[in-house]
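Rather than argue in generalities, we have chosen a single entry, letters for residues, whole numbers for local backbone shapes, without further comment.
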Amino acid sequence: MALFILLPTKEWLYIGFMFITFSGIALKESYCFKVKGLNLVPLLLISSVLVLWMKEPTILAPLAGLSGFIYAVLAIEKWKMPLHFDIGNKANYDI
């Protein structure tokens, strides 16, 4: 939702490119975490861009809100995971 506040509404194409990135992250993380609805995030974000292009804010709010909620659940699941499971080569992070 912060993207809609920060970027002007005529820049919906840039938001679309960011949503492609977020969709890839959602699909990648769906292999690691069993968050319900994570596989639906790409469809929700594609629909959000189309609705943004059609200038229908009443439909846009639930679509973007639902995808944001699913990402929030994913963030909570990632925060619960110990850091050493997420870092590949730990030698790069030693000080």
